[in-house]
## 1
Amino acid sequence: MFDKLRNAEIEIAEAHCDGPCGVYDPSQARIEAESVLQLTKKILDLKAPDAGDQKASAAYQNTLTRFIAIKEERAELAKHHLLILWTDYFKPVHLEKYADLHDLFWKTAKLCSACKQEVSLEHAQELMDNIKRVHEIFWETKGKDVPWFMAS
Amino acid sequence: MRAQVGQASALFFMLREANWKDRISYAIGKLKAFRVQGDSMLPTLRDGEVVLISPKASVEPGDIVLAKHPYKQSVKMLKRVAAIDDSGRYSLVGDNAGESTDSRTFGTLPVAHIEGKAVCRVK
């Protein structure tokens, strides 16, 4: 009689979060920020062609424009993923343990903007460093030991 | 903020295991069985575990209750009563606060939303 308590027909009582999927991972922001860092390097390394070589000039303009466009897009995506973590995943209870959480996200989101406005290796690296810190805090709150790594 | 009539003094006390009296109460319909889904009541209740609910037991701060979700009509949820205010509204919080949507998000609930108290869990 009591065994039926173990069957699957028992009514469900939810004990979870209202997030539609509940799947979060700072890796999304990390991958976009890696693109920003790599594109910043590529823009800085790009050599302008000699004046007068129209074909080379067109190719240069095209490549530079693509680098800039993708850097812009990826920095915006990094910011998007960071804001999702900040506003949807993290809760007041996390703020009690990580008092600098708001400041970290605020500064990291601003670094995404700085990476769009500038061609700054320093800010692109700082963005990666901050996302690494987000990664560490995030997985600590999950109680999982997930080592930091980069795809590039 | 309103004065709190009752407030949980010691959260996270564990739910005892069902004994033979609980089993009889369940058999005659005095206790209802529900299966836990989700991690918001960890470490007290695990995903997949079965709890027995008493619809008639009196509820105090610190108790785990089955409550109707304020927005989703078909959803019932298990949460800990953190406080009951002087107008009789219940503040519910998951034991695993970092992975719980509760009164911190949807506010306090009236007594009509409280469907019963969790009295034990089934091993």
Note: Chain B is about 10% helix and 35% strand.
## 2
Amino acid sequence: MALTNDEVLGGLAELITDETGIAAEEVALEKSFTDDLDIDSISMMTIVVNAEEKFGVTIPDDEVKNLKTVGDAVTFIVSNQS
Amino acid sequence: MTTKRIVVTGVGASSPLGGTAPESWVSLLRGESGARTLEHDWVAEYDLPVTFAAEARVRPDTVLARPIAKRLDPASQFALVAAMEAWADAGEPEVEPERLGIDFATGIGGVWTLLDAWDTLREKGPRRVMPMTVPMLMPNAAAGNLSLHFGARAYARTVASACASSTESIVNAVEHLQDGLADVVITGGTESAIHPITIAAFASMQALSRRNDDPATASRPCSIDRDGFVMGEGAGALVLETEEHAKARGAKIYAYVVGGGVTADSYHITANDPEGHGASRAVRMALEMAGASPDDVTHINAHATSTPVGDPNEYQALHAVFGDRVDDIVVSATKASTGHLLGGTGALEAIFTVLALRDRVAPPTINLTEQDPEVPFRISGDPVSLGEGAQLAISNSFGFGGHNAVAAFASA
């Protein structure tokens, strides 16, 4: 069964907290990974790898650079769920 | 040019005897053993021939914040925990970043990270191999992360000389301070390699004790029935600085590091030179650098891993330097309590040596059954007073590859 936007946001927030220590409530749709959350490229790739496993999606490397905000990632994951 | 005197102003450890240097020291003086039966599923899964080791008493990932810990192999976690303690113990010295150096060693590096990544690759494919894999497994990971954490920009160096690694690192730190590369150095070494692969491999070469039924007494250096070493893990860290720098900031001084010697055997990749020439030369070099004679030495922390061949080789090497007087020097073989921390062992033993000079007491060598007449060191199952006079101690470490490293310490 496909996950909702809120469920993906919650799951993504868990991964971000685990990787960076950023509080889950800080992780909101409009937040930029780099400018707001200060996530570096290696952490971003770690989160991507973990998100692929958690949500059963494939996030191509070319796509990662388009995921500027948490909302971009949530939208991509929700619309690419198998 | 006058030679700068180098002092120890901070110590830190995470070891099989405790989560800090003072806890490890007190447990050592009490005669405790850090060795226990391993409770991991993989012991039975792989039917390992050796089922015990001296694991660290406190897991470092329970001390560090999770986002920090998960970017570090356990070896680097131990290093950071020990270095943070040493830095705090030294009073967090104010020093220009360009004058703070790191000399931090490991014997093996991030073996857990490497093998976990291999499992992931085989089970889940390349996409699941984490991007931090290489920076976590590289042998310089501890030094690099310490540089990052403490803002050290003079240099960050790693030597790898197996079980001699961290003593060699301490000797390097002294040389770097004397050469003027830094005013303060965080030095030491780390290892976290109690893994089924390393246990299987060391067991395969007949290096490990097989006393599975009695882990706590398995490491018994100098005893006639010793049957191999006991794997340990953890890290030791020391803050060294020039005496001038330490005194200018009013730091407490544990001891002086007065000498160091590093040599190579060129004899065999794993076996000791039975004549102990390389080990003897390393001791003589350390004493020469200290401006001391063999007669000045009052305490020795021996390498003494509890292997049948290694212990008498070390005795012969020391006898060549000290003559029959070696039998009068108070020796401690602390691997009896700690097991063998490989790349971390020299640093932990350096800390024990420094604390022995501070407290004027040599720590006990536990588990002595009947002393081997081929290894007649003056050891005791109880702490031994070193007396009131000036003290000079050496700490020895020897490693696969034919590496010999010796550091000499004088009481403050």
Note: The radius of gyration of chain B is 20 Å.
